[in-house]
Design goal:
Elements (H helix, E strand, L loop, with lengths): L4 E5 L4 H11 L3 E6 L10 E4 L2 H9 L2 H5 L7 E5 L5 E6 L1 H4 L2 E4 H12 L4 E4 L3 E7 L2 E6 L5 E3 L1 E4 L6 H7 L6 E13 L8 E7 L2 E8 L4 E9 L10 H12 L6 H10 L3 E9 L5 E2 L2 E3 L2 H4 L8 H18 L4 H30 L1 H4 L35
This protein binds flavin-adenine dinucleotide (FAD).
């Protein structure tokens, strides 16, 4: 039995999924999560293609499906509320859609007895040696692990510590967006509405079986250098950009002002030439975030966890061989997903997609969909079998 020790930074999706596979292959796993407890709530995320297959191989498909949001479709409207298109749920909700917090809970329940979880702490330094990585934490005592995995998201701490600043790897898609909870005052029944407003869009989706809703406000903009912790400034920015717009926007702006469940980000992709350095490797959004517009972030986090663990087990813990094989298996799939992310960005927000290095119009095959109506994202990945 392999007894190599692995420290995973980040206990959201990629981290716990990797923990499950590594434990099955006999590794000793510790997860360190900056949040003081498991983060629940959040937006809806979906599974497509290979992501669904991995969930089945994990034996968690049924447990996750219990949380299916059951979305039925989306109506695309213009600023006057006139219907432009009716889209099937697959376009925005994939083959299976759950709230991110529900998925994290299922993954946590499936791993908490077999992996050590440390909440409320973070890595501050890592020193790699011949026998392992000496890790110092903000709060806990220093420890040594054979391997360290950065599964700590697009703003990864491990990536910053080992590979350098985020600015070297983050490619701004030119979109800024906010998501927040709202009462389901439109009375939507497992449905969503997407309002096209030129280079802006508003969204309203029923959530938790119509007992609540989630609202989203996105706009094409490259100017805002946003401080991720300055919620007031972010709300101000959204309010200014959407002032005077039609549909439900005035009411959504009012709701946004008072919500305490507000998420804002610039939509970026993470692109790196390599995902590993010595005994440290990146996984999920930390390594290859495709941006929420791709609809593939969760699937590729789950698929990456499956492949990374499978390659580590196959290589009997020889991390150099495993990390090389992991990249080889994943690169094409990630490239497809990142293309989807750029293409959807250009499709949603034509002016945001133009002129940017990652906007999409300049690269063959990345032009926006007709009428700016989104299409269901598709990418292919043949999952390797790991007979370990
Ligand atoms: C608004 C929005 C909508 C999205 N919609 C979809 C969708 O429809 N379909 C889809 O497939 N994907 C979607 N995604 C993307 C999806 O959520 C991510 O791709 C996926 O969660 C990646 O998982 P991850 O585990 O790599 O990273 P994350 O989920 O970002 O998790 C990173 C974890 O690391 C933790 N962390 C951060 N810093 C530290 C630190 N210093 N130390 C320890 N822990 C740390 C964080 O607290 C977090 O728990 C969306 C994302 C956003 C933001």
């Amino acid at each position: 039995m392999n007894q190599k020790s692995v420290l995973i930074s980040g206990a959201s999706i990629a981290g716990p999924a990797l923990a499950l596979w590594l434990h099955r292959y006999g590794f000793r796993v510790t997860l360190v999560e900056r949040a003081p407890a498991l983060r629940d709530g959040g937006h809806a995320i979906d599974f497509r293609g290979a992501g669904v297959d991995v969930l089945k191989r994990m034996g968690l498909f049924e447990a996750v499906r219990e949380h299916d949001t059951g979305m039925r479709g989306i109506t695309v409207v213009d600023g006057a509320g006139e219907t432009l298109a009716e889209l099937p749920s697959e376009v925005m909700s994939g083959e299976l859609e759950v709230l991110r917090g529900d998925l994290t809970h299922v993954l946590y329940e499936a791993t908490r007895r077999d992996a050590e979880y440390v909440f409320g702490d973070s890595i501050v330094s890592m020193v790699q040696g011949a026998d392992g990585v000496r890790v110092e934490f903000e709060k806990g005592e220093p420890r040594t692990f054979d391997l360290v995995v950065g599964a700590d998201g697009a703003h990864s701490n491990v990536r910053r510590l080992v590979f350098g600043p985020e600015s070297e790897y983050a490619h701004d898609l030119g979109l800024r967006g906010a998501i927040f909870s709202a009462p389901n005052y439109l009375g939507l029944d497992h449905r969503g509405v997407l309002c096209r407003l030129g280079d802006k869009a508003g969204m309203f989706f029923s959530a938790r079986h119509n007992t609540e809703a989630r609202a989203g406000l996105f706009c094409a903009d490259r100017t805002l250098e946003c401080d991720r912790h300055d919620t007031a400034a972010q709300k101000r920015f959204i309010a200014e950009r959407f002032a005077g717009e039609g549909w439900e926007i005035p009411r959504l702006l009012d709701i946004m002002e008072t919500t305490d469940d507000f998420f804002f980000d610039t939509l970026t992709q993470i692109r790196m030439d390599t995902w590993s350095r010595g005994r440290v490797v990146l996984l999920g959004d930390a390594a290859y975030c495709a941006a929420p517009t791709s609809g593939m972030g969760t699937s590729q986090a789950m698929v990456g966890a499956y492949v990374l663990a499978g390659e580590l087990a196959t290589a009997a813990g020889d991390h150099e061989t495993a990390f090389t094989a992991f990249e080889k298996e994943m690169r094409d799939y990630v490239a497809q997903n990142q293309l989807l992310g750029r293409r959807a960005a250009a499709s949603f927000f034509p002016s945001g997609g133009e002129g940017g290095e990652s906007g999409g119009h300049s690269e063959a095959g990345e032009g926006p969909a007709a009428n700016g109506v989104p299409e269901a994202p598709r990418s292919t990945m043949e999952l390797k079998e790991y007979q370990v």
